[in-house]
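seq:
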Amino acid sequence: MARQGKALKSNQTTVGKKWFIVTLAGVIWVSPVLSGSLPVIDKLSPASVAYAATTSVKKLGEEIITSGAVLMKYQYTSSTGAKSLANVVRVDLNNPYVKLDVMAGKGNQFTTRQSTGGMAKEHGAVAAINGDFFITNREGAPMGPQVSNGDLMSSPSALKGMYAFAVTKDGKPILDEFAFSGSITAENGATFPLAGINKTAYNPEGTGSTFSHVNAAYLYTSAWKAIDRPLNSSTTPTEVMVTDGVITDISVMAGLPTAVPEGSYVLRTHGAAAEFVKNNLEVGQKLTADYTLVSKKSGQKLDPSSLQMMIGGHTILVDNGKAASFSRNVNDLGGTRARTAVGYSKDGRYAYLIATERNDGSTGMTLQQLQDFMSKIGVWKGMNLDGGGSTTMVNRPLAEMNTELTFPTEYGTTQRSVVNALGVFSTAPKGNLKGLKVSGSSTLLIGQTGSYELKGYDTYYNPIDAGSIKPTWKSSNGNLAINGQSIKAVKPGTSTLTAVSGSTKAMMQVNVLGADDLAALTTAVSSAPLQAGTSVSVPVTAVTRSGQSLEVPSSALKWEFIGFKGSVKDGRLTVTSVNSNTKVGYAIARYDGFSTVVILSAAGESTWENFENVSYPIKFTTNVPAVTGTASIVKGSGSHADSKVLKLTYDMTGGLGQKMYAYAEFNGTTGKTIPAQATSMAIDVEGDSSLNWLRAELKDNNGKTVYVDLAKAIDWTGWKTLNIDLTGYNIAFPAQLKRMYVVNVDEGQDERALTGSVSIDDIRFTMPAVAGNEGLPTGKAVMTIGQKSLVLNGSKVAIDSAPILKNGTTYVPIKHVLDAFGGQATWNQSAQRVGVLRGGMLLELTVGKKEFILNGKRHSAAVAPMVQGGRTLVPLRLVSEQLGLKVKWDKNTKTVTIES
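struct:
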């Protein structure tokens, strides 16, 4: 998370003029580097924070993870009313059957980053959160200290205001700012100070040196996997291999070409430290290393071997149960993000592992809000851990064997690879069977058969084999149909599913999703050719309001065909025959009344640009002069090796600290024309896993600039087809595609690559209106409030219901609009739902609901249809504009003009 100071991105060099880029406490500095010198960042004055506002915390629930560890979920409401979700693992440090420890990357080594979930799986943790800050463009090692199972794996960096959290072997929590103090002693008694253990190159503060490894001695243990110790240190090392306290090898002015074996360490030296080696050390001699940690506050020494664990972090957040002044500059911390923190209770009994969410269901928190939340739930002293895209929590549900993601990260289900994580471990022996739990999905779609079983947990709440119990299942209502061990969802609503085995019973809530629970319904294809014999696969996916995607069982769908005869069998749509004079056909799928549509037309999907014969200029542009790159037509690679592709390369290193764009501009400032209404777009993109944002810029027929999201995060390599629904963008066609581009926003900038390239090929548009609009009337209609007539293309036409004006909104029966401009309407009396088909659009509105469904996606609206005088009236502007019509209102004459 860039704004939380995780990354101290640096480009250390000794020649020429370069730009030095470093982030400390989330604040980015870009300074010129002359003659090998680096900018010195002096005093970072701490920001005094006072957060006094009307806020609240509501506990939503809790569940036991293991003996001594509980997962609690909260909702935090800010002073503005914004709601954010927070997850807290509370660990009882007095419980002998649970402990905290720190996990590193793969094989428990640095320089081998791994996801939080991956570390939990490798080490057997029952819960975990991501840990310390790290330099993102380096090997992958924590900036702060790390003690795992009593071993000091990483020392604190010489940086100001960086706190660490620890638990002693007798269960006492500590949160303090620490320094490292150590030395090596040669066989002849000569000594030299140690600067640290297993550190990447960085820029220390308050030491008089701008290079961490200049004139310094560091220890590297087998916890450091990489051979380079470290990368890009601006120094040439002299290294000494020490095994069992005896020097076995010395490499002068060059690193030893090997990783550190288990049981050994490498003394890595430079300058004055290398001179010490030259004058005092020889192969075969003994060498002793001594070190300790020292509190910067009290000066008290802390023996790492007395600790169970220690993990480094960033600023202190809470002290004495109140928001503390930040110990590092946090003026540029990046707004509301996902956050990770750790702290402990006033009595020292509980440790709190905290992760707040930023996703579709949660706004995220500022640091000040995080402080407020922590103090409200009982944290006495706490500090900030790495956050943003790194924020991850995993936990093992009761009676289950494996951990799972507690909530979606900022990248969905993708977990960012990090350098370490704070894990919760059960140390309990195997207990007796304590209870049974129903295991299975808590969410089902109508027609879906769920898989459920009884699982057991022991007296320490750890999973235990419950045997092959075949329980009797019961449902609290008719939403679930039970046939032996088969449980099928049949009606929307919540049911209590009960498993009974002898005198034992267990229950869980199962929610059968209905139309009101859905945000979207999508098909694998949005268009198909309108001709007899067409056969396309049309699996349907439901997206819930919480963002969960579920494949809809065929039995739960009702299909309707307009303009042709056909069938859907085993998820495949087949066109039998096409009705005469039909230009556009519709295959409408409904799940509990929620609809989506496949548009069939003579046009279908057409290739708009394949870059084989480009006759217009394409060039690279940017919004920041320091950003460089190219946009050119080149030979493709991989699966597109036989094609020409558009390749966009970018280097944003010079523009750090601001939003940056790398554009591929089509045909100068004019763009290339998309000739007719397009309902969807498909594009092949070769990704670079940069996590940058990929977008397209269009200018529509009304002169409006439209920004289309192609991919929120480029999180793949190789070629991938992106399918984009254009129906929600309200684009007036014909339109111009002006630019495709990569975006690196300033918030969380260190989480994304500054350099990279993407390739683009085979841009396709589905344009059902090419055929469909041929038969649709065009012209102008003028309606006047209160008059039962309209003027259509200059001629007066009688209508049976006058438009009305209510609360600033004009309402009409939809029939009048469709009579004038083409299309057809349907009315579902029981659902009170109006359906409208026109061109490539299926629009559905429900009386009294301020929302509508357009081509399978739910949208909010400011107004709702209503019933008056026995007639259903729809908001004229909302409906007309969604159908691609232009609407103008003249308040003086109280007339509405609609044009097509």
